[in-house]
Amino acid sequence: MSKAVQTQVDQLFEATKNLETFEEMQPYCDDFNNWIKGNTTYSQKSLGTVLSRVGFYKKFKSLPLEQGKNAVSVPKHDGENQVGTELKHYVLTQCGLKPEDWEARNTTTRATDRLTNGNEIDPDQYLEIVGKLLSSDDPHELAVGLVAATGRRPHEILARAKFTPIDGEEYHVTFEGQGKKRGDKPVFKIATLYPSGLIIKLHNQLRKEPNTKALLKEVVAEFPNDTAAQNRAIDSRRNGSLNRVVRAYFGDKDDSTPVLAIRHGDEQDNCKALRAAYAALATDRDCPKSIGEKMLHAARLLGHYVGENPTDSSLRQTVTTLGYLDYYTNKPVPFPTVERERVKVANVRVFVEDIESIRELQQQWQLPNQQTVVRNLIELAQRAKELEEKLLDTQAQLKETAEVTEQITEDRISQIVEEKISAILDEKLSKLIPATSTTPITSKPKNTVKPKQQPKQDDIDWESMSSEELRENKSRGGAEEKLRRSFLAITDHNDHKARNKDGQQDTDLMWSITNQALRQLSGCNGMLVKDWMERHQGAIDDHNSKYGLGTYHNKGRGDINEAISW
């Protein structure tokens, strides 16, 4: 019988290890408990021994735990005395329970209370805020706007989602990249609260944003073969910054008239609230039918009832959907449109010898005006920059291979790199430059694809300046470099030097990147530091979230200069 229990434990673990809400885990816990009750005769004591023997407790204790997502704080006892609390995976609190625990669980009203305390949404007001977020240049605000407009989770928007347009359907897309499907990769149709073309364009823009690319590169390096762990890391590191945007735009707990009322049982609004609001608005807009059809429609939108051929047994997943259906609206949900962008044209001066080259490019590329030629040249330069970065990575990888095998010479490396450059350039240029004319360009290449650069106003090479000389400098440029070095010094200390006596990372030896820490380390005044932090908030949040370093982490630790220097 223990082998059968082992199989059930393994299935339960695989089904729930990537889930992060109690509502999603509960059906699997119920199935497991019902199987134990109907197929075994173990006493409470012997059941605990069997579960321990098959690795039940060890499996779930090995998972990263996060309060309110996959784990909950429970009392910790020493004999009959409570000595504190401990964080325990939700499955461990719901499976293999004592009779009194079963009674307590069966009398919980968490979901019922939420459903009986629903909140109304004003769709016009909600969509107006979403529109503002979608037009923002801030990547955190744009990410929240995409979450609100598509109902996808943060890690899906930042890393996994792929949206494909559907012919004839302006407010729907095909979506793939659903998280928490335990190895399945469903592709299904979802609604968008703004035109799908805009959503796809902005999503591509966000994925190319430097901070987003850096975050993905970092989590892939940390968990190279574990997509679920990458997803958890992305959500964890972006959770604080994205939720701050939600509260700033949709309402905080102290707001008397929030755009989105805080859900019953929550202390503040978050991205999960946006997912619930999306389900309410998109379902009301597209499915004005029976209650059952509405519920099934919402389940499909949220990815709870998908697959090639879902059956009646799959309907149990709609119980999870119920946990999101506490918002409602009494007003019709509109289809917001996007006004055609007005492209502002500015006067740009060029060298006389370059104007003829621009005209020839305009004719060869069959472009409507010279402004479009300049735009294409800028895009070409950006592509070339991306290409250069890829080539440098390729060259570094080849050199590492050469060191290991001792068979590839430097000449061979150069040859391979040159071949890759030629192949990639051919591919990129063929896509970028329409091959509509075979007329050669008579002017020199250096004047057509590489415009002359104006001399820089500030020729000081701050990065090469010695630390002693930089500390004496009082200019704004010097302050920027001091803050940059201070930031890098803190991240380097946390990443590589904050170690305990066993050589393991120790957060107690780390320093949170705060205004005071940067002030002390750089010697700059608080206003300069505040301005610099606002412009680099994404990188700061990413690093602090990486190690769970909060605002008060440095409290009582004295001057940071005693531990870190640059």
Q: Quick recap of the structure?
A:
The protein has 566 residues and is mostly helical.
Structural write-up:
- The chain has 4 domains: 2-108, no CATH class; 119-328, Telomere resolvase (hpI Integrase, Chain A, Orthogonal Bundle); 352-448; 463-562, no CATH class.
- The protein contains 25 helices and 7 strands.
- It has helices at 2-16, 22-39, 44-53, 56-61, 90-94, 99-106, 110-115, 123-134, 139-150, 154-160, 196-208, 210-222, 227-250, 271-286, 291-302, 318-322, 352-365, 370-405, 410-432, 445-448, 467-472, 476-497, 515-522, 526-535, 537-547; strands at residues 71-78, 81-89, 119-120, 162-166, 169-176, 187-191, 327-328.
- The chain has a 3-stranded antiparallel beta sheet with strand order 4-5-6.
- Residues 434-457 have low confidence and may be disordered.
Count the E strands. 7
Kindly report how far apart the N and C termini lie. 63 Å
Number of helices: 25
What is the assigned CATH homologous superfamily of the largest domain? Telomere resolvase
Which architecture of the largest domain does the CATH hierarchy give at level 2?
Orthogonal Bundle
Helix content: 55-70%
Provide the gyration radius in Å: 28 Å
Query: Helix/strand/pairing class, anyone?
Result: mainly alpha
pLDDT averaged over residues: 81
Percent strand: 5-15%
- Lateral strand order in the biggest sheet: 4-5-6
Task: Describe the protein's topology.
Elements: H1 2-16, H2 22-39, H3 44-53, H4 56-61, E1 71-78, E2 81-89, H5 90-94, H6 99-106, H7 110-115, E3 119-120, H8 123-134, H9 139-150, H10 154-160, E4 162-166, E5 169-176, E6 187-191, H11 196-208, H12 210-222, H13 227-250, H14 271-286, H15 291-302, H16 318-322, E7 327-328, H17 352-365, H18 370-405, H19 410-432, H20 445-448, H21 467-472, H22 476-497, H23 515-522, H24 526-535, H25 537-547
Parallel strand pairs: 3-7
Antiparallel strand pairs: 1-2, 4-5, 5-6
